[in-house]
């Protein structure tokens, strides 16, 4: 809570007490039958206090941002979403059956935007970086997701309405309660406000018990019915199913695409000539059975992920192409800045890596590539930041993790996660499958290496532990260097050592004759190791939603009587690149339009021809609303005009050249400025008059 | 069964009897102590008969194709599949966990082929035909698939090993039994063979009881254990799951993508300006929980479908672009030809439509477009046929249906279904959802229309049928014109009429006072109707597998000591368009290679650079096996050679031109013949010597 808010809350509480006290005083005077001037003076004083309270209230509301700001964001979002749904960019799935929460269809323009975004992703990442793209099934057997930890840990805490059985996410209810209290209840004390803010900050870390206790303490009830709620309990977010007819093979719809790559590591490493580093990539559907989906396209039950798994030697995370991105400078929000309450700031990427803010060059390289990818799509660079995970957000095995967050009407939204996951995933699948997922580095000449050698003496262990011998042997062999050296010291000093065997779940006593621990010099010809993996993971639907918001604007119609909607998509993203309009319904113009349409098809330019008699202005407005960047208007048999969406500028081009000019700008080989400086300008004459 | 086979089976059976009789005679002579010359003569005769029997056996085996032919097909398939799996075109999913039947991953080259096929599909169908592409979720609520009929009818009949519980498809077991018997048991009578062939022909029509009876009659047991089998029972092929946390909303993974389009008909029709015809399209995953998947990529549990739903006025199924495909001529296999035992024959498409073999122009147009699509991908036109469904194969509502079948080592495989599904799907969803999925045709002037009016007299019906009144009323109202006019006549002549009410499952008696049936003249301003839908549905994985087989060939290495594998993919399909090889490891060459690689990246040409010291011949062979059409070999600083995969011809091109030349041929703007006639030929000198 910043200082001004704290002071204002304090002042508001004091003023509130003063108002109450003065009100009490007025009533007392009246009851005591005091003189009218005396009563009037007291009332005047009361009114003065009320005015002061109201003034503080306004300042406080402004300080906590619960007022006009969020209202504007809601209004803006509603305008965007209305346009998107009306023009079928996306629609709730199965609408005629009243839909299913968290499932959306992309209609024609949305589907085109999505396929453009994915095609660019393939070009920008897979093709330019020579990644190995794979395509694995969504249906996944349990054993794979058991190894990855999803079966046991991919859960959210849920509470149930004790009477109706309706389910809610426990943390959402608590979060909503705290936010509502902070924004709407101005009478809470600064201490209470600080407490609520603290709850919000640690929300992700609360255990099931802690969440339950807070819900009880605050008296939170079911939002719709006000019924009491159950204690929180974990709900696994994977859609479960059964593979084959026997009912004996549980399976899940994958919650991410990454596991399909990890289990193929061995083959992919071989395909890459047994060389590191290399990256594999996958685009595909992922599924999360959200408890109560909300925020439209941002939290859905089925979505498209595009994931990269870049495998690298943990001892060498440099990247040969890092210099190509080192000079990029954009908003970064390192852990330190977040902890000390500062905001994101522009840092050159090279500096972030050299100063150790970003853990390594490869991670830095991908951060830079993600920045280029998002901004080229049309994401506003001032509303894009890379936020480092705090220690409590990161998985225990992760070396470093940055989220590309995009600001939209819902706040800052995680759209791409870029994590150095160390060797965790490959190790987990190695252990579970028994197949070694490792890489080798062959030495030019053999190296002498000091190695720890643990030799369990099986005869002695067998005598001591009988049937448990195997478990003890395995546990001894699995000790890391530190544990082994400690045991060695204990055995030498005390002849025996207590030793915890996790597969037995208890301590046993190891005697000196049961194991030899020593360091030996060995000659090694190669190093065998589990590669680290750096994983940029893209939520395509979230990126697209933010892109919609960043691209949307309105401008007055020519007559000034209404606001027209425009999406300023770059040609790369635009669902249709060009429209072809005969200015008026006339056979000659329509034939020219058809010829141009054929050239556009041949050139692979998606376009739409509109021969309705609607006014040209209306036709422009309709396609501006779809974000179509160029319109070719046929107003003669020999030449046509090409109009650019945002400037509304028009040039005049020969019929035969029109398709080519559009192709050059949509393919990015020319800019509109190039076109503008090459061709004669068409003044807002007949064609524009109508607009 | 063709005549020669019948005669041969007869002859074989007779010869078999003769051998047995003669053997018996020999034994009798020996037992009777006959003279040696007599016995020798009998033995000689026996051996003669055995030779004759062996000769007939060979002819019979050749006639039924169970001999070398299928062996060759198996060997060929094994060679293709070995190459595909070794080069990671595809691999069994989750291999390190011993895999899951019916699930496959596409590795890097397979994934690239798939994405090329899909990109071309989008260009050939969506873009060129201005289709409305949509993208709907895989998770589908039960109500949708209840309406479509999948919940009740999307089943296969299954039998269980009564001891182990292992499940099998009942029809597969019966089919395998019949085929095995026909191909391997030469002693069966021609009558028995005819019976088995009949069973194979009607296999798809057998009821659960009939299948069970045949399995019992033939004594078929579980293939692995020889245990007895259960009676057949239906198993629903959809993967079931549960949407949301309550467990109260059953859902399924969609078995096809089409339903997502049907439920959006209303919005899509509006998006298209309330005009027919229009087509919507969708590419996406579909899921079928096969009982026992086999045939590799052909029968899998998760696959990519590309589907088109072309909505059209049932009274006008002409197509404006039909003339563009009318002259195509390819293998068609109409119903009549199949019934009369003929084979597929080449028919011009225009003729097939004008003669009514193909039901309508729109269906014909799509058949033509599918032919062009498949052959441009590289499917051999002589191993592609369009087979019309027999009456018993077609859904009752379908107007006509043709499968594009491709011949591969498994036989003729359905890869694309092109069906005129009439108004079935839209009607089903209209009824279930209560939302009218209809189109309107506005008349220029109002039309007088004679309309059948059925007015049930509810009072009389209520008195007669009490609680069943509603069912009777609905059944009366649902009569078609023919039924209603028949009832009218019966009521007029006999005062009453028997009437079957399907919702009651019985006949009731309708009296004359219970309903009025009349024809009235009405003025209508528009016609409201449910559009017909013509659905081309593409199994992408099946097409790709057939493409792999049709593209594969082997040729001897230069030294002649081994057979090298080649995929003759057209550039459109090839996973990588070009490789770049420095002839020898030399810094100067490597730098040139990098410059060319950068130009190729800029031009969007997927390629691979290989700077290993491996011999150039080996490097060519490696990439021929991936189907890479062109190789640029750097053997000087100023010019390079470009080699074409199938001819192994090479031309010499300047360094700066190389990327452009490759782009022109891979984009299809030039052919290799053009390149060959433009640039100087490079004789098999240093670069080729090694090959």
From TrEMBL, chains A, B:
Its EC number is 6.1.1.14. The lineage of its organism: Eukaryota, Viridiplantae, Streptophyta, Embryophyta, Tracheophyta. One of its GO terms (biological process) is mitochondrial glycyl-tRNA aminoacylation. It catalyses: tRNA(Gly) + glycine + ATP = glycyl-tRNA(Gly) + AMP + diphosphate. Keywords: Aminoacyl-tRNA synthetase, ATP-binding, Cytoplasm, Ligase, Nucleotide-binding, Protein biosynthesis, Transferase. SMART domains: WHEP-TRS. It holds the Pfam family HGTP_anticodon. GO terms for molecular function: ATP binding; glycine-tRNA ligase activity; transferase activity. It comes from the Eukaryota. NCBIfam families: glyS_dimeric, PRK04173.1. The keyword Transferase applies. Residues 11-67 form the WHEP-TRS domain. Residues 78-556 form the Aminoacyl-transfer RNA synthetases class-II family profile domain. Homodimer. This is glycine--tRNA ligase. It is found in: Cytoplasm. Belongs to the class-II aminoacyl-tRNA synthetase family. One of its GO terms (cellular component) is mitochondrion.
């Amino acid at each position: 809570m910043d200082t001004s808010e704290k002071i204002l809350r304090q002042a508001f509480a004091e003023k509130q007490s003063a108002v109450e006290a003065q009100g009490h005083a007025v009533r007392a005077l009246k009851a005591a039958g005091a003189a009218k001037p005396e009563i009037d003076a007291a009332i005047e004083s009361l009114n003065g206090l009320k005015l002061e309270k109201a003034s503080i209230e306004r300042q406080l509301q402004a300080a906590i941002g619960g007022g006009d700001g969020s209202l504007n964001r809601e209004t803006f979002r509603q305008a965007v979403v209305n346009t998107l749904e009306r023009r079928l960019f996306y629609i709730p799935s199965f609408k005629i059956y009243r839909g299913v929460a968290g499932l959306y269809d992309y209609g024609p323009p949305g589907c085109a935007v999505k396929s453009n975004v994915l095609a660019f992703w393939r070009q920008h990442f897979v093709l330019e970086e020579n990644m190995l793209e794979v395509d694995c099934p969504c249906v996944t057997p349990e054993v794979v997701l058991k190894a990855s930890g999803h079966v046991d840990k991919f859960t959210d805490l849920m509470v149930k309405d004790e009477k109706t059985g309706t389910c809610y996410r426990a943390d959402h209810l608590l979060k909503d309660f705290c936010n509502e209290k902070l924004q709407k209840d101005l009478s809470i004390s600064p201490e209470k406000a600080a407490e609520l803010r603290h709850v919000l900050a640690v929300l992700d870390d609360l255990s099931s018990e802690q969440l339950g206790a807070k819900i009880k303490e605050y008296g939170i009830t079911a939002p719709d019915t006000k019924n009491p709620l159950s204690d929180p309990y974990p709900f696994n977010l994977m859609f479960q199913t059964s593979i084959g007819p026997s009912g004996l093979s549980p399976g899940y719809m994958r919650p991410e695409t990454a596991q399909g790559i990890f289990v193929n590591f061995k083959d992919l490493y071989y395909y890459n000539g047994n060389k590191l580093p290399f990256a594999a990539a996958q685009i595909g559907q992922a599924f999360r059975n959200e408890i109560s989906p909300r925020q439209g396209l941002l939290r859905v039950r089925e979505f498209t992920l595009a994931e990269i798994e870049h495998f690298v030697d943990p001892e060498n995370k440099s990247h040969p192409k890092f210099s190509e991105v080192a000079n990029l400078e954009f908003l970064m929000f390192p852990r330190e800045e977040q902890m000390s309450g500062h905001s994101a700031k522009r840092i050159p990427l090279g500096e972030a890596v050299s100063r150790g803010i970003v853990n390594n060059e490869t991670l830095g390289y991908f951060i830079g590539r993600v920045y280029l990818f998002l901004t080229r799509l049309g994401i506003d660079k001032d509303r894009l930041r890379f936020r480092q995970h705090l220690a409590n957000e990161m998985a225990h095995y992760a070396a470093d993790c940055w989220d590309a967050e995009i600001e939209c009407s819902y706040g800052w939204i995680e759209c791409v996660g870029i994590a150095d996951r160390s060797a965790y995933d490959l190790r987990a699948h190695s252990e579970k499958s028994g197949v070694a997922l490792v890489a080798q580095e062959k030495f030019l000449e053999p190296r002498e290496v000091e190695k720890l050698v643990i030799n369990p003496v099986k005869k002695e262990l067998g005598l001591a532990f009988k049937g448990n011998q195997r478990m003890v042997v395995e546990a001894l062999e699995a000790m890391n260097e530190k544990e082994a050296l400690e045991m060695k010291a204990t055995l030498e000093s005390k002849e025996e050592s207590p030793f915890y065997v996790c597969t037995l779940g208890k301590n046993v006593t190891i005697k000196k004759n049961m194991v030899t621990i020593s360091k030996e010099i060995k000659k090694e010809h190669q190093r065998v190791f589990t590669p680290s993996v750096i994983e940029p993971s893209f939520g395509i639907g979230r990126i697209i939603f933010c892109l919609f918001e960043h691209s949307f604007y309105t401008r007055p119609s020519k007559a000034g009587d209404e606001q027209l909607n425009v999406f300023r998509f770059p040609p790369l993203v635009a669902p249709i690149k060009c429209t072809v309009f005969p200015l008026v319904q006339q056979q000659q113009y329509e034939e020219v339009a058809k010829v141009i349409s054929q050239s556009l098809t041949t050139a692979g330019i998606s376009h739409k021809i509109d021969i309705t008699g609607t006014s040209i202005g209306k036709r422009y407005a309709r396609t501006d609303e779809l974000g179509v960047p160029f319109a070719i208007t046929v107003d003669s048999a020999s030449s046509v005009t090409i109009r650019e969406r945002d400037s509304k500028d028009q040039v005049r081009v020969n019929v035969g050249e029109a398709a080519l000019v559009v192709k050059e700008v949509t393919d990015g080989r020319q800019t509109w400025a190039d076109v503008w400086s090459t061709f004669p300008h068409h003044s807002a004459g007949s064609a524009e008059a109508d607009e």
